[in-house]
């Protein structure tokens, strides 16, 4: 057993996601980790679970050489640096290839790509146990009776101290690298590899929802779990900016020529401000002024994509993805229709979602009120966030 490295209270962890298996026996014509699960590829859900965890600073995905194109199609955009490794002939070979790719972490969480419903609580349990152990892995106690036999019951096995192993299986990086380097032959999992070198591995709480997609009915079960645990948040945003001197206005990150400009402490992009506040609202996290006070001179003239990116990152840190955004701009001029498609594309890029999930439209107030008098532009937005 090796000594544990000292912890500074903020250890960095790499999520090593093993996705090199063929997994075709479930049907569908492609490996199971790339199949659709409630509208999203399995591997996308798995990656996102670790991408949104604050302790995970690297992600390494081990893929099969034949799956690179499909991986590129299924992989979500991530905040966390993500690298690919090519898998080997066995799972052990694939894990070793992934371990070799880790650059700047002292801990690693080795996880099956086919376990897309991994929760933050299970990940936290493993990471917390690594403060005092070389290895840790989640498991569930065996509660059913165990029989031996073929067509008839020939004996009963004692289930005392028996556990059903899950992933992620966490280790101090140097220790598990040494264990894999020394291991020769097959192993049930990485815990078996670690124990072969004498490492002690703590058992942490698993979850019944953290199932591995193996049998045909597992996709139906996973779908039922997602429908049960889905957390949907809706937020609204509203903002107004007055016109002043200028020759353009910034709307949704797009420069629109106009005979006046919008006035504000930042670049006065009323569209981005409104969408940003809608996301903050869905999270119950205040508004732009809460996070970027106008009294702070560093935000004077700031580009508003900074605010929206912060809101999107904050949503991700809480485990939410943005499902859709609907924005309405209220003004007589400039005309929004000719540039609406460009605004949608820029918003989708900043929100990290498909353009089909972003709506940008405009209305006038029939020459009524300050917008009707062309004194400024108002905007309202609704954002829907989903956590599964």
TrEMBL record:
Transmembrane portions of the chain: none
Cofactor entry: a divalent metal cation
Site-annotated residues for Transition state stabilizer: 25, 32, 265, 364
Entry EC number(s): 2.7.7.60, 4.6.1.12
Reaction(s) this enzyme catalyzes, per UniProt: 4-CDP-2-C-methyl-D-erythritol 2-phosphate = 2-C-methyl-D-erythritol 2,4-cyclic diphosphate + CMP; 2-C-methyl-D-erythritol 4-phosphate + CTP + H(+) = 4-CDP-2-C-methyl-D-erythritol + diphosphate
Site (Positions MEP for the nucleophilic attack): residue numbering on this chain: 159, 212
Keyword field: Isoprene biosynthesis, Lyase, Metal-binding, Multifunctional enzyme, Nucleotidyltransferase, Transferase
Residues at which a divalent metal cation binds: 239, 241, 273
Cross-referenced InterPro entries: IspD, IspD/F, IspD/TarI, ISPD_synthase_CS, MECDP_synthase, MECDP_synthase_CS
Molecular function, one GO term: metal ion binding
Pathway in which the depicted protein is active: Isoprenoid biosynthesis; isopentenyl diphosphate biosynthesis via DXP pathway; isopentenyl diphosphate from 1-deoxy-D-xylulose 5-phosphate: step 2/6; Isoprenoid biosynthesis; isopentenyl diphosphate biosynthesis via DXP pathway; isopentenyl diphosphate from 1-deoxy-D-xylulose 5-phosphate: step 4/6
Similarity field: Belongs to the IspF family. In the C-terminal section; belongs to the IspF family.
Function description: Bifunctional enzyme that catalyzes the formation of 4-diphosphocytidyl-2-C-methyl-D-erythritol from CTP and 2-C-methyl-D-erythritol 4-phosphate (MEP) (IspD), and catalyzes the conversion of 4-diphosphocytidyl-2-C-methyl-D-erythritol 2-phosphate (CDP-ME2P) to 2-C-methyl-D-erythritol 2,4-cyclodiphosphate (ME-CPP) with a corresponding release of cytidine 5-monophosphate (CMP) (IspF).
Protein name: Bifunctional enzyme IspD/IspF
Organism: Gymnodinialimonas ceratoperidinii
């Amino acid at each position: 057993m090796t000594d544990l490295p000292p912890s500074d209270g903020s250890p960095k962890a790499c999520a090593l996601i093993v996705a090199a298996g063929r997994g075709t026996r479930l049907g569908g014509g492609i490996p199971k980790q790339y199949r659709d699960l409630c509208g999203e590829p399995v591997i996308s859900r798995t990656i996102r679970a670790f991408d949104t965890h604050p302790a995970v600073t690297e992600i390494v995905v081990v893929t099969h050489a034949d799956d690179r194109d499909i991986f590129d199609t299924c992989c979500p955009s991530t905040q966390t640096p993500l690298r690919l490794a090519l898998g080997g002939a066995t799972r052990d070979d694939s894990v070793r290839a992934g371990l070799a790719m880790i650059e700047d972490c002292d801990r690693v969480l080795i996880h099956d790509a086919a376990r897309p419903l991994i929760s933050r609580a299970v990940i936290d349990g493993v990471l917390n146990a690594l403060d005092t152990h070389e290895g840790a892995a989640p498991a569930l106690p065996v509660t059913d009776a165990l029989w031996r036999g073929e067509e008839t019951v020939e004996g009963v096995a004692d289930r005392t101290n028996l556990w059903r192993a899950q992933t992620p299986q966490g280790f101090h990086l140097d220790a598990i690298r040494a264990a894999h380097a020394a291991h020769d032959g097959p192993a049930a999992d990485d815990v078996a590899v670690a124990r072969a070198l004498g490492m002690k591995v703590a058992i942490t709480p698993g979850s019944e929802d953290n199932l591995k997609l193996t049998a045909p009915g597992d996709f139906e079960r996973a779908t039922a779990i997602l429908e049960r645990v889905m957390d949907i948040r809706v937020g609204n945003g509203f903002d107004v900016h007055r016109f002043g001197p200028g020759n353009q206005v910034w709307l949704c990150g797009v420069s629109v020529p106009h005979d006046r400009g919008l006035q504000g402490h930042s670049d006065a992009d009323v569209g981005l401000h409104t969408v940003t506040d809608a996301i903050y609202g869905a999270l119950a996290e205040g508004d732009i002024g809460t996070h970027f006070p106008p009294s702070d001179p560093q935000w004077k003239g700031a580009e508003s994509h900074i605010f929206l990116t912060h809101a999107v990152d904050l949503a991700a840190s809480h485990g939410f993805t943005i499902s859709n955004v609907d924005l309405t701009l209220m003004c007589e001029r400039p005309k929004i229709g000719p540039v609406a498609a460009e605004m949608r594309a820029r918003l989708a890029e900043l929100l990290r979602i498909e353009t089909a999930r972003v709506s940008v439209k405009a209305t006038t107030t029939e020459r009524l009120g300050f917008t009707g008098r062309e004194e400024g532009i108002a905007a309202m937005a609704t954002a829907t966030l989903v956590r599964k």
